[in-house]
């Protein structure tokens, strides 16, 4: 087990490119954007790492999105994702090439295998960060993360161990822009893992098209107060041309898909308008919607904390308020169309 | 094949989230006066561990690393049905980040000859979710995180899990020994019976382990933690208008500009 290391021996900012069935998780492009800034500040290269059955195309896209160098490990053992092979391959590359910083999306996948890299390499691993920077004179990674369910922000540093690893929450950064003229080197690396590293086998995998609520300009979210009837939420979202979202409580009840959950353990959304109906406003929920420009709350309990965290609110039954709102929206939009004519 | 399973459940003591307040004068986090409770997601871990024991047979041992008074969360676990409890307590553990914390839990799991180690999804205080994969990595065991359901296959020395993945779920079979992290809220934790509660309060005694008992005194604590908390500040509340209306028309007028 390596003890303290000489930070001078470590350079480059690595970004893990998460893909499933050839489809790249958007957080990976967000990390290339943020990683580019860190690499430029420290005068280091931005290196992307792809593990898949055939990663050439994804590697080319990573170059277009800002990577100077892409490491590609191609092997059927990487499909579908399992912690064992991903962790072991990533670890072997880290030990061979000594990156300074390694960023991994804070998805279930990223948070599943990151520890299998950090533990054997004795690296510092910061969880679920929402802000990244480097310290001016030292070049140390400053990873900021919410704790106590979002009541406080902690800055985590890793002074004597390398690499400085972080999992980073999805949706908090903008994805890197594409630039077809950008050049970078793509390197297919030796695959150093096999089935023996897996300790597990996939029996079945059921994945439907994943909705993405993180880009929506308007979000209408329902909570436990809907008592399982999301139709008023859906109608209002439909009238507004927005996306339906939910609290964790509603997702756990099976009333909404997990991909629609907003909050600490769900998605971070940054819409112009966020309407929360039948949601109490627990700190873990607020964390995912704090960046909304305007927040509207509908709740039957005047003491619900959501009102303290909303711009506009109404104390009332969502089954009465939302249909009325939907009607107003339809009317207003209808008028808009006629006056434009 | 293993006849009965040695099941370890990891439970953490945390400040009661409802009690953690922000000092209005200093703007700092006030958690010293917060009651210490069992990490909410760990109730789901205990429930899953007890269900495994019901299906396969064996024992459930609750394990916690923390100060001496963390024995309370072991008592809670025993009241709910755990067979025994191990308290890893030592000044040497102070300031441990997830690297040494998972090492300590990995060592005790090895010591107890665990077949399955069950954890919660994450803690409610520092909520890294890194401890369960860390335990698995230290021992080079299999891991199953974000688990919604478990299906033991003792005849194959395997544990099958339904895992929550982006956009769906997967069924995955892992070799024993395996570390599991249950999705918070995924099962309905039982309520402790009175009999068991009295037993836990009066007769139960935790087994104590120091860092040197586990042979890791040189590898734990602040000095051996690769990360350190460089600073904490209270998150500034986002400024909001906080305007409450009596009728839908006024409410709609307030945000009409945003939508048309
Ligand atoms: C580790 C951890 C992570 C978590 N992560 C998340 C997360 O990512 N996202 C998240 O949302 N939560 C998360 N939570 C859970 C969070 O603490 C709350 O339990 C949850 O947000 C509550 O959901 P809710 O507001 O829908 O339900 P409740 O708190 O039950 O609130 C329901 C609200 O509906 C109102 N209501 C009832 N009927 C009506 C009606 N007819 N009309 C109008 N209003 C009505 C009630 O007054 C009440 O305020 C997490 C918790 C933990 C411990
Ligand atoms: C503000 C703050 C931020 C921090 N950020 C980081 C960070 O980014 N990286 C880092 O490495 N460390 C960090 N730490 C240190 C970390 O919180 C401790 O190591 C902690 O003891 C374990 O992490 P956790 O609470 O996040 O556990 P999690 O991994 O969230 O817990 C998951 C499960 O593991 C089990 N478990 C966890 N701890 C114990 C325990 N002591 N005893 C028994 N079972 C347990 C429980 O089943 C629990 O449900 C931070 C600490 C603070 C105060």
Structure explained in plain terms:
The complex is a heterodimer of chains A (341) and B (260). Chain A has two domains: 7-197, Rossmann fold, CATH 3.40.50.620; 218-340, TPP-binding domain (Rossmann fold, 3-Layer(aba) Sandwich), CATH 3.40.50. Helices cover 28% and strands 27% of the residues of chain A. Chain A has helices at residues 26-42, 56-64, 83-97, 108-121, 231-240, 248-252, 283-286, 318-340, and strands spanning 13-17, 19-20, 23-24, 46-52, 69-74, 101-105, 124-129, 131-134, 141-147, 152-157, 164-168, 185-188, 200-207, 218-222, 243-246, 273-277, 294-299, 312-315. In chain A, a hairpin with a 4-residue loop joins strand 9 and strand 10 (152-157). The mean pLDDT of chain A is 94. Chain B has one domain: HUPs (Rossmann fold). In chain B, the strands form three sheets. A nine-stranded mixed beta sheet of chain B has the order 11-10-9-12-8-1-6-7-13, sandwiched between helices. In chain B, strands 2-5 form a two-stranded antiparallel ribbon. In chain B, strands 3-4 form a two-stranded antiparallel ribbon. Chain B has 260 residues and is an alpha/beta fold. Chains A and B meet through helix 3, helix 4, strand 7, strand 9 and strand 10 of A and helix 3, helix 4, strand 9, strand 10 and strand 11 of B. The complex binds flavin-adenine dinucleotide (2 copies). One flavin-adenine dinucleotide (FAD) sits between chains A (223-225, 247-250, 261-266, 278-280, 282, 284-285, 288, 298-301, 304, 317-319) and B (40-41, 122, 124, 127, 184).
What is the radius of gyration of chain B?
21 Å
The CATH class designation of chain B is: Alpha Beta
Task: Specify the overall morphology of chain A.
Answer: elongated
What value does the Rg of chain A take, in angstroms?
Answer: 22 Å
How many strands in all of chain B? Answer: 15
User: What is the CATH topology classification name of chain B?
Assistant: Rossmann fold
Unreliable stretches of chain A (pLDDT < 50, length at least 5) are none
CATH class of the largest domain in chain A: Alpha Beta
The CATH architecture name of chain B reads: 3-Layer(aba) Sandwich
Broad structural category of chain A:
alpha/beta
What are the secondary-structure elements of chain B, in order, as H or E? EEEEEHEHEHEHEEEEHEEEH
DSSP E strands of chain A, number: 18
Mean pLDDT of chain B: 93
